[in-house]
Amino acid sequence: VMQTIDKVFKAQQAKSLVLRNSSAKERRFKLRLLLKNFLEMEEEVLSALSSDLGKSKTEALLAEIYGVKAETTFAIKNINSWMKTKRVASPLAISFSKSWIRPEPKGNVLIISPWNYPIMLCLNPLIAAISSGNTAIIKPSELTPESGQLVKKLVEKTFSPDEVAVFLGEKDVAQKLLDLPFNHIMFT
Q: What is the pLDDT at residue 128?
């Protein structure tokens, strides 16, 4: 696993240089595909959450499935405005010039999620990473193994490993990932 992590990380570093120039249309396509595949796996999501945490169907639908659906829909709707270069006022010292803010991807993102909402807290940060034109590696909680397997299956169905990958395991896997020079880490 440790050698695979290094290999995937290096591939994602190279891919992040390509993704930084991806269009809103390309990012929306990826988000729609992620949502489509996720919704097709709804019964598996319910089963994993029941197995791992004893979550009822109602709680799983409201807290996890609806949360992912709402986050994806929100991102798809807003991605154009998020990517736009915006004109801003120049500071007084250079008031004779023009200033802009141009959003740019961070690059390689690590997502470490907790056990309490094991699917939503893996996928919602992923939605943000994809919306922003980044690559991502996800490390689900080892305390929710069925949910981790489900996230891994969903990601492998939706993305190539040089864009998004999931690594399952204990604290040694998390430590290995934390030793890598990620550009951004999302830890909930």
A: 98
pTM of the predicted model as reported, rounded to 2 decimal places: 0.94
The Cα angle at residue 88 between residues 87 and 89, in degrees rounded to 5: 135
Q: Give the residue among 125, 120, 138 at the shortest CA–CA distance from 55.
A: 120
Is 127 in contact with 111 (CB distance < 8 Å)?
no
**Residue 75: both structure tokens together:** 């991102």
**Is the backbone of residue 107 left (phi > 0), alpha (psi -120 to 50) or beta?**
left
pLDDT of residue 188 exceeding 90: no
Query: Tens digits of per-residue pLDDT, 48-107?
Result: 999 999 999 999 999 899 999 999 999 999 999 999 999 999 998 998 899 999 999 999
Amino acid present at 61: L
Pick the closest to residue 140 from 157, 152, 128, 131 (CA basis): 152
What is the four-CA torsion angle of 173, 108, 152, 59, rounded to 10 degrees? 100
Quick one: how far is CA 152 from the chain centroid?
12
